[in-house]
Design a protein that fits this description.
The chain is an alpha/beta fold and about 280 residues long. It folds into two domains: about 5-200, Spore Coat Polysaccharide Biosynthesis Protein SpsA, Chain A, CATH 3.90.550; about 205-284, no CATH class. The protein has helices at about 50-55, 75-80, 95-105, 120-130, 205-225, 230-250, 255-284; strands spanning about 5-10, 10-15, 20, 35-40, 60-65, 85, 110, 115-120, 135-145, 150, 160-165, 170, 180-185, 190-200. Strands 4, 5, 6, 7, 8, 9, 10, 11 and 14 form a nine-stranded mixed β-sheet that branches. Strands 1-2-3 form a three-stranded antiparallel β-sheet, with no helix packed on it. Strands 12-13 form a two-stranded antiparallel ribbon. Strand 12 and strand 13 form a beta hairpin. The termini are far apart.
């Protein structure tokens, strides 16, 4: 049964799961110099996507969601929030984001993941930018919530990322994992106040699944580049990573959860290089 749509003096008022809301294109906006398209890639993100879309209200002039054929309610939630929802076979992280950028109506792109949201301060900074644009790309701080706890050390913060940019000056690379935005030489970069709030792992099982996937992709990426790792690298990368993140980068200041984060980071490093060594053994 289709959810009802209501009319108000402000425009269409949609209803979903007991909540009334205005579609993005119905919200009143102050005239801005910059029109901003937001690009999100998704796969089974019903747990996160509403929080992400809610944080974009009043900031986005257009939202493009590129979905890899989700089987949950991701599509339903995106459509009721007024986003443009497109399904596209998964080609990799960078390629999927580039595909979404190419679909956008505007040259200015805000790239955000489904498990992220804008802080109030960051929303204000983006609105200020839209009214008075200066640089051609902007970085943001990313603050991560790990199993419900904000992590401010461990090498996880400020974790600056370029997320707001003129697509005519930038393109995502095609790395298998940890894709990077490549800017044209001479592109000016500014920094926005506030935080991109990252709601990462909800449970230990979530993290173990992600760790297994990412270490496999990273090992395959290194192997394709011809990178090798000796037994010393495989054996000591974990302990070295733990000492760096827990002591040098202040993970100890995040208490118990800082210890957990650093322990899993160390385990991830060890697992990645052992998988790389396995690739080379199988190739010989």
């Amino acid at each position: 049964m289709q959810e009802p749509v209501y009319k108000t003096g402000l425009g269409r008022l949609n209803y979903l799961n007991g909540i009334f809301f205005l579609p993005l294109n119905s919200q009143s906006k102050i005239d801005m110099v910059v029109k901003l398209s937001v690009v999100i890639i998704t796969f089974n993100e019903e747990r996160n996507i509403l929080r992400c879309l809610d944080s974009l209200e009043g900031v986005a002039d257009e939202i493009i969601v590129v979905d890899s054929f989700s089987t949950d309610k991701t599509q339903e939630y995106c459509l009721f929030k007024g986003a443009c929802f497109v399904q596209h076979i998964w080609p990799g992280y960078g390629a999927q984001k580039n595909y979404g950028n190419d679909l956008a109506s505007n040259d200015w792109i805000l790239s955000i993941d489904a498990d992220e949201a804008l802080s109030v301060e960051l929303k204000k900074a983006i609105l200020d930018f839209k009214a008075h644009p200066t640089h051609e790309a902007w970085s943001v701080n990313r603050l991560t919530s790990y199993r419900g706890h904000w992590i401010r050390h461990c090498g996880w913060y400020p974790d600056r990322k370029i997320r707001l940019f003129d697509r005519r000056k930038a393109r995502w690379d095609l790395e298998l994992v940890h894709e990077n935005l490549k800017l044209d030489p001479g592109t000016g970069i500014g920094h926005l106040k506030g935080n991109m709030l990252h709601y990462s792992y909800h449970t230990r099982e979530d993290q173990l699944r992600q760790m297994e996937s990412f270490t496999s992709l990273a090992a395959r990426q290194y192997f394709k580049r011809g990178k090798k790792a000796g037994w010393l690298k495989a054996a000591f990368s974990g302990p070295v990573r733990f000492i760096r993140d827990y002591l040098v980068k202040g993970g100890i200041l995040d208490g118990y959860w800082g210890f957990v984060v650093c322990w899993y980071s160390a385990r991830t490093a060890c697992l990645k290089y052992n998988k790389l060594r396995k690739h080379w053994r199988e190739a010989d």
